[in-house]
Amino acid sequence: MSEEAAVTGLAAEVTESSQQPASSWGRAWVRHRALAITLACYLIGAFYVTCELWVNPAGRWQTGDIEDVDEATWYMRYAANAIEHFRLPALVTSTMNAPHSVNLMWNTSLLLPGSILTPITLLFGPQVSLTLLLVIAFAGSAASMFYVLRSWQASMLAAALGGFLYGFSPALVMSGIGHYSLVLGIIPPLLVDRVLRIATGRGRPVRNGLWLGVLAAAQLFVSEEALVDAIIASAIMLVVLAINRPRDVLSRLRPLAIGLAAAAIAGLVLAGRAIWVQFHGVVMRDASATVVIFYNGRWTNLGTLPYAFVTPSSRVLLHSVRTAYSAEFYPQPTPEYLAYLGVPLIILLLAAIVVFWRHLPIRVAGIACVLLEWLGLGATQLNPKAVTLPGFLLPWTYLQHLPVISGLVPDRLCIIADAAAAAVLAFSLDLARKSHGPFANRPNGGRFAIGAVVVALLFIVPTPYSTAGVEPVPPGWTATYAALHVTPSTRVLIAPFPNADTSELIRWEATTGVPVTMIGGDFITPDASSLDSRAGRAALNPTAEYLSQLAWSGPVPPRPSAAQIRADLAAMKPQVVVAVTASTTRLGRFLISLFGQPTTHIGRILGWRLPGS
C-alpha cells in the first residue's frame, strides 16, 4: 500500500490475518514490550518535569504564573464541592463574583478534569490535584500522539519519538506553568485523527463521527480554545488534501457529511446545553486586537514574536545565559513563550518536508505545521518595540474580529502545530529508514536519520519546573468564618479585594473551602469591554479597587466619595466582611470607619457580621 493510499484511505486498509504463524507470537511480545517501555518513558518524563513539585505537592507551585495557578485551584475545589454533594458542577455560578455570577463556559474552568480528580482534591487539596494533572497531561499527550501515529502505520520508534516531540514540546511545557487547560493536550490529536479517518475512508463514517462528537464534547469541558485550534488544524489539512487529491476527496464528500453529522449529533447531545448556556444572551464585543492584556506596564496583544522559534529559554536543557536572558524578557507572559523548536529541529522538519514532498502524509502535515505557526504569529503588535512581520504578512490580522475567533490567543496554535511537526518527523524518519529519497542505496542511511532526529530532539528536552512555596493560609482564616457563622450562601467581601492581582485570596478559599460564596474573583466576562473582560476586572469598582490599594505599600490613594462607596456596597451586597490586616493599618482603619469595630479578631484576620445579615 502506497504512502498516499495510507493517508487518503481510498484503497483498502492494511489488515492482518488472525491466522498468524507461530513465530509472530514472538514479534507480538516484542511489540508489547516496546509499547510498555515507551509509555513508561513518557510517565518517567512527566515525573521528571514535575519532580520538584513532588517534594511537597500540596505546598509548591511552578514559578512563572502564580495568578493562573491560584485561579486553577479554585476551579478544582469548585468541581470537587459539586461532586461531593452528588451533582455536576453548575455552568453558571454566583459562588464567585457574588451577587452577580460567572459563566464558567467562558472561563478555563477545568470542569471535566476537576470532576475526575475530585477524590484527590478532597483528600489532599487542589494543589496536589493540579500537580497530578501535569503528570497526566505530559504522559497522556505523548501517548495520545503515539497512538495516532501508530494508527497511521508509523513504526514503533518513529511514533515514540513523535510522541515525545508533541507531549514534551516547549509549547506544552510552557503552557503547564499555569495554563492547565492547554497543557492537557491529550484530545486534540485524537480529534484531528478522527476527522482525517472520516475524510479518507478509514473505518465507518458513522462510528468515526460518533467518536469525534464524544471527543469534541469532552474537549469542550477541558479547553474550548484547544478545541477551536484543533478545528482550524483539521480544516487546513482537509483543504490541503482537497487541493492534492480533488477527485478522491470529492468522492468522499457524502461519507464526510455523514460522519460530521454524526459528530454534531453526538456532540450536541453531550454538550448542547453547555453551548446554549455559554452563548444565550451574551453580547460579545469586538476587541481592538485579539486578547488585549496589561503586562509589564503596557497594554499588549498576544502572538508569537519570531525570535521565540529559535531562542531557547531556561525551561529547556540546552540553553545559554544569553538566550535565557532574552527569553526571560519576552514582552509577553511566560506561559506564552510557546513557539520554540530550536534551529536543528526546524532545519530537520523543513528538510523533511522538501525531500519527501511527494509523500502525501508529510506534505499535508508539513503544510499544516507551517501555516499554523504562521497564524500563531498573531496580528499587528500594539507594542511598537516588538519586532515581528509587517501587518500585511500576518494573516491573523484579518481573522481577529470574527466571532469566537476573536477570543482566541493565536500563539497557542503552536501546540497543535507541534502535533503536525511530530507527524512530519515520524513519517519522514520511517521513509529514511526504508532508504527512500536521499537515503537510497546508503547502508547506514537509516542510522544516520535516527541520529539526526535524536540530536534535533535534544534541543527541546525540558528542565524540571522551578518551584516556590505557595502563600500559606493566614492564621485565623478558617476560625474567623466559623466564628461569624458563615454558611455556603453567605456573601463575603474580602479585603484586599480578590482578583488576579490578589490571587492568593482565591487560593486560600480553594485550600480551606471557605468562604463558599465570594464577592469578586479572577474570571473572564465576555460582555465587558476587551480591556475589562479578563482577570476579574469586570467586577472591580472604585471601592473594591481602593480596598486593594490600601493593602499595598506606597502613597495613600484617593478615597472614593461617600456616595460612591454607598453605591458600590449596595451593588456588592456583602453580608460578611473579612480583612487580612490589622486594625491599626490604613486598610483596617478604613474598614472600621465604614463598619465599626470588628465582630471578630482572630490571628491576622478581622471580621464583621453586617446588620440585617
Task: Describe it.
It is a single chain. The strands form four sheets. The protein has a four-stranded mixed β-sheet, sandwiched between helices. The protein is mainly alpha-helical and 613 residues long. It has a domain at 471-613. The model is unreliable at 1-22 (pLDDT under 50). It has helices at residues 3-8, 23-49, 66-84, 111-116, 118-124, 126-151, 156-167, 170-175, 180-183, 187-200, 205-220, 224-244, 246-251, 253-279, 321-328, 343-355, 360-375, 413-433, 445-458, 477-483, 503-512, 542-551, 562-572, 586-595; strands at 60-62, 92-93, 102-103, 292-295, 298-301, 467-469, 492-495, 576-580, 600-602, 605-609. Strand 2 (92-93) and strand 3 (102-103) form a beta hairpin. It has 24 helices and ten strands.
Give me some keywords for this one:
mainly alpha, two-stranded antiparallel sheet, 24 helices, 10 strands, elongated
Give a quick precis of the structure.
Helix content is 52%, strand content 6%. It is mainly alpha-helical and 613 residues long. The chain has a domain at 471-613.
Helix run count: 24
Provide mean pLDDT, rounded: 91
Main β-sheet: number of strands, strand sense, barrel status?
A: 4 strands, mixed
Distance between the termini: 75 Å
Helix fraction? 40-55%
Envelope shape: elongated
Which residue ranges are poorly predicted, with pLDDT under 50 across at least 5 consecutive positions? Answer: 1-22
Specify the oligomeric state: single chain
Strand order of the largest sheet: 7-8-10-9
Counting helices, strands and paired strands, the structural category is mainly alpha
Strand content: 5-15%
Radius of gyration, taken over Cα atoms and rounded to an integer in Å = 26 Å
Strand runs, count: 10
